[in-house]
Amino acid sequence: MLNNPPPDYRFDRYVRQTRYPPFGDAGQRRLAQSRVLVCGCGALGSTLANLLVRAGVGSVRIVDRDFVEATNLQRQVLFDEEDVERQLPKAVAAAEKLRRINSHVEIDAVVADVDHTNVERLCEGVDCIVDGTDNFQTRFLLNDAAVKLGIPWVYGGCLGAEGQTMTIVPGETACLRCLMRECPPPGTTPTCDTAGILGPIVGVIASIQALEAMKVLSGHRQDVSRSLTVVELWDARVRQVDVSTLRDQVDCPACKGGELVWLSGREGGHTAVLCGRNAVQLAHTGVSVPLEELARRLDGVGQVTKNPFLVRLRVDQYELTVFADGRAIVGGTSDVAAAKTLYAKYVGH
Ligand SMILES: [Zn+2]
Fold first, then answer.
1. How far is ligand 1, taken at its centre, from the CA of residue 303, in Å?
2. What pLDDT score does 224 carry?
């Protein structure tokens, strides 16, 4: 008979963070029972998922609509060249890595575009949402869903060598619409495609976001930041904009008025120009595409590759990637009409 029970590896592995007094064993136990949604698994999302899974959250749901490309590797820390070769969806590639990092965390990979028809389902049962998206439309939608469901969420965004983040606790702190009344119209703000992005700023912003989420998930909600944090990394400058009284000062249509126009589908489009490359995404909700059949049909049209998640056709200067849910990403153009034409020509519908 053993005098001492064997060490509990599941718990022991976190000893360096439980030793930090404000977090402690109690924080770790609560974290282990928590659920988090990582919305978007690009640069911010993959860094967030990495940190949160290593920290020992109970479960992570990762949702992303995209697949891994060579230009992602400079800043998207969970992916490697093999993922690019295999043309894996980011959510799937991330889940594979994360399971090897921490097999005790339940990981749910969802390959989908977040829109008003599925956002509430994706948020179901989670205790916190972290923002790994690359566009304001999805952030305003997330804000609506979080306000309706009362789920804290951590906004984050990066561009160039700059980034910002803010923690939103619905009903307590300012929400995204308290901060920005309207969503910037598409095409009016720079993107990673036009302004570029440096890897280190992603690490800084995602790290702040991850710790804010850990506070929420470990029972330290009262300690979340009440500031909008803006980091300008090229000049090594950090600015804190106090938002602790913002909610009292503005007449917010969302968190005070209950007008959730993004969640109702009144705002927000189905077509988006992707961040980071010359490409258009076309979304077709409620459609299911038989990928095997499509791949057979396209054979001979151009160069066709496939895996269980997508079919890709290279023809002329275009690259058409079709997912099982009917979504497509048309590379080689930023013209929505041209992308639709190509989709209609080769996929039909
Ligand atoms: Zn608000």
1. 49
2. 98
